[in-house]
Design a protein that fits this description.
Helix content is 43%, strand content 22%. The protein is α/β, with parallel strands linked by helices. The chain folds into four domains: 9-139, Response regulator (Rossmann fold, 3-Layer(aba) Sandwich), CATH 3.40.50.2300; 156-255, Beta-Lactamase (2-Layer Sandwich); 266-425, Reverse transcriptase/Diguanylate cyclase domain (Alpha-Beta Plaits, 2-Layer Sandwich), CATH 3.30.70; 447-685, EAL domain (TIM Barrel, Alpha-Beta Barrel), CATH 3.20.20.450. The strands form five sheets. The chain has an eight-stranded mixed beta barrel with strand order 19-20-22-23-24-25-26-27, surrounded by four helices. α12 links the parallel β17 (386-393) and β18 (422-424). The structure holds guanosine-5'-triphosphate. Guanosine-5'-triphosphate (GTP) binds at residues 269, 302-308, 310, 315, 318-319, 322, 344-345, 415. Residues 9-126 form the Response regulatory domain. Keywords: Phosphoprotein.
Length: 695
């Protein structure tokens, strides 16, 4: 195929070399390449091999004459467009000229050749050939560009469509046809039903000079398509003849967004609203309540002793209990109440209807009642006790945080008052909580600032009025509040987790103190130390006690560890094991507060103990209550049969002392002999008989 070169090539064909020389002489002015050949065959060979802009072809030639060459050139794609100028000596032979023109010649030159005519015709033909070739090049370029664009339009996943000025569809690429389910040209001129999210039909932007591309989210709906969302860019055509639309189906993206949104506000374990979701729901309800001046109620629920479930049965059982609790809670509520899980074992319920105190109390009672039935989880029968705090809008708080805080305060009160109950928020509760929080804050510094002190309460022998043991008791000197009652700060220590650190300090300090008394007290004097529930369940306890005895040099039989009845009873099998191991190193084990809760004599014989401490509450009623006396007598008798020593706590009067002494109780602890006293006072009493304070 001919390609453009800097100079056009002219092919001269004549069987007479003299003619060729003459023609070459006339045409070779330096502006063109000249190739001269003497036969039709040679001419065709040149034409096939290289680009030629014009052929000057002698008609009369042996073998292949000029007309045949011209005819053959027309048959070949590569040569058919090359202009041919026939040269003939028979300018008057019309038939021959006609044959030449029919064979494809453009024009004739008659011999003898006039140089000016030759020059003019050659220039004309070369000029028109050049223009033709330029057009071909431009056409080819345009075709290539078009093919390129068509390929892009056909392969892109984005829908591209063109609308005319009457909003009729006049072009779609394959993606657009698929997305919109339209098939041009079968459905030409249909307008596209794009809808705005607000519900109205999409308004196409104005065409004109200030027109620009706009991008929107729209919905598309047709007879064959339920509505689905599109991201649409709309550009007015520069000719003002319509619009080009580029769009994508964003259903999947929207679904993902919706899923993410749902996940963001849903609690994965229970499927309830999570904290964020619940807060959103409360905020929406609050703005409605403000507008209509309506009250709201908010319940804050916290499971009772849920940690124990995890600790005893493992996290998976805890999870199942939480899920089961939610199901039961949901069935206790009305469909339109909003329930959320706002923390580990914390839930909240928003009530928008029927929120008088009476109605909300009924609902709270219903929730509590539903929880009295045990759950059967992995073969364990578990009860999910729950404490509920209730706060009201607008009385207890104006926003979500205030309401939740007020409900939380009320819930805390319900816990304080014994759990498995509900409380309505009241302003006094805030003051109590503030005071408690202040105390809690200072408790964190108490250890570092040496504000804790140990006092020792003597355990006096009935037989000799001498001190046989002392119980180490913790006291807290608050720098501003003075002496804080243990009944106030011990629960705070437990709640804060500080109990672990403080308990091991007590144990160590008491053992050291016992060694310091060595010179002045009986060599068998026991130092009794209370073990917290956390310490008792700590795997490392035995190791720690051994290490402590080693460090301080205290003989093991001088250390008595007191564990409350309620701690021991939590898991009898484990307790048996721990008690056994502690006793095996020689330490004495005492059950504290006996008679307070469970008072089951049956399990006593299963527990490897040394000492039984009868609780003060029990002792308090001895004089008045014949039944208590009978029970005390039975307990002491049984304890002796089991080889246990009995200590009565809280003995305050001579009458109580005498009753207990008569029943065979060996040791007495209480104000009757002494309140808890300092280490120095114990040292001063030493081996002396102790005189009752209330003779
Ligand atoms: N199984 C399980 N436990 C959780 C999850 N989230 C938090 N917890 C546990 O729930 C317990 C919550 O304990 P608290 O509320 O502090 O204490 P409690 O034992 O319920 O005691 P009170 O609330 O005072 O009655 C902690 O031990 C957490 O580790 C959870 O998704 N699954």
């Amino acid at each position: 195929m001919y390609t453009e070169t800097s100079q056009p090539t002219v092919l001269l064909v004549d069987d007479k070399p003299s003619n060729l020389v003459a023609l070459e002489a006339l045409l070779d002015d330096g502006s063109r390449n000249i190739i001269a050949v003497t036969s039709g065959k040679e001419a065709l060979r040149v034409l096939i091999k290289q680009p030629v802009a014009l052929v000057l072809l002698d008609v009369q030639m042996p073998e292949l004459d000029g007309i045949e060459v011209a005819r053959l050139m027309r048959l070949n794609r590569r040569t058919r467009d090359i202009p041919v100028l026939m040269i003939t000596a028979y300018g008057d032979d019309i038939n021959q000229m006609l044959r030449g023109l029919q064979a494809g010649a453009i024009d004739y030159l008659c011999k003898p050749i006039t140089s000016k005519i030759l020059e003019a015709k050659v220039n004309n033909l070369l000029g028109s050939r050049q223009r033709q070739m330029d057009r071909e090049v431009a056409h080819n370029e345009a075709n290539k560009a078009k093919a390129f664009l068509v390929e892009i339009l056909n392969t892109t996943g984005e829908g591209i469509a063109v609308l005319d000025s009457g909003l009729h569809l006049i072009y779609t690429n394959p993606a657009a046809a698929e997305i919109l389910s339209v098939h041009l040209p079968a459905e030409p001129n249909g307008s596209l039903p794009f809808w705005c999210e607000t519900g109205g039909l999409y308004d196409f932007p104005q065409t004109g000079t200030s027109a620009r591309t706009l991008t929107h989210e729209v919905w598309y709906e047709s007879d064959s398509n339920p509505a689905f969302p599109l991201q649409l860019s709309c550009s007015p055509l520069s000719t003002n003849q319509g619009w080009v639309l580029a769009f994508q189906d964003i259903s999947r993206i929207k679904q993902l967004q919706a899923t993410l949104k749902r996940i963001a506000i849903t609690d994965a374990l229970t499927g309830l609203l999570n904290r964020a979701g619940f807060f959103q729901a409360v905020a929406a309800a609050l703005s409605k309540a403000q507008r209509w001046n309506k009250p709201l109620a908010l319940m804050y629920l916290d499971l009772d002793h849920f940690k124990d479930v995890n600790d005893t049965h493992g996290h998976p059982v805890g999870d199942k209990l939480l899920t089961a609790f939610c199901k039961r809670l949901t069935t206790s509520m009305r469909e339109y109440d909003v329930i959320g899980r706002i923390g580990g074992d914390e839930f909240a319920v928003l009530l928008e209807e029927d929120v008088s105190e009476e109605q909300v109390s009924t609902i709270a009672e219903k929730i509590l009642k539903a929880q009295t039935k045990p759950y059967l989880i992995d073969g364990h029968s578990l009860v999910a006790g729950v404490s509920i705090g209730i706060a009201y809008y607008p009385d207890d708080g104006a926003n979500t945080d205030q309401l939740l805080q007020a409900a939380d305060v009320a819930m805390y009160q319900a816990k304080q008052d014994g759990r498995m109950s509900f409380r309505h928020h009241s302003p006094e509760m805030n003051a109590r909580v503030r005071a408690r929080n202040l105390l809690m804050e200072s408790l964190y510094q108490a250890m570092e600032q040496n504000q804790f002190e140990l006092l020792y309460q003597p355990q006096v022998g009935v037989a000799d009025n001498c001190i046989h043991g002392v119980e180490a008791l913790l006291r807290w000197h608050h720098p501003d509040a003075g002496m804080v009652s243990p009944t106030v700060f011990i629960p705070l220590l437990e709640e804060s987790g500080l109990i672990v650190k403080v308990s091991s300090w007590i144990l160590k300090a008491a053992c050291k103190q016992r060694m310091l008394w060595n010179q002045s007290v009986s060599e068998n004097l026991t130092i009794a130390v209370n073990l917290s529930a956390k310490q008792f369940s700590d795997e490392l306890l035995i190791h720690q006690v051994e290490q402590l005895l080693d460090e301080t040099g205290l003989p093991a039989h001088c250390l008595e560890l007191e564990v409350t009845e309620s701690t021991i009873i939590q898991n009898i099998a484990t307790s048996q094991n721990v008690l056994k191991r502690l006793r095996s190193i020689g330490v004495k084990m005492a059950m504290d507060d006996f008679g307070t809760g469970y008072s089951s004599l049956a399990y006593l014989k299963q527990l490897p103990l040394d000492v039984l401490k009868i609780d003060r509450l029990f002792v308090a009623n001895l004089q008045q209550d014949e039944r208590d006396r009978a029970i005390a007598r039975a307990i002491i008798g049984l304890a002796h049969e089991l080889g246990l020593t009995v200590i009565a706590e809280g003995v305050e009067s001579k009458e109580q002392y005498e009753l207990l002494a008569n029943m065979g109780c060996e040791l007495i602890q209480g104000f009757y002999f002494s309140k808890p006293i300092s280490s120095l006072e114990i040292q001063n009493i030493g081996l002396k008989r102790i005189i009752p304070q209330h003779p």
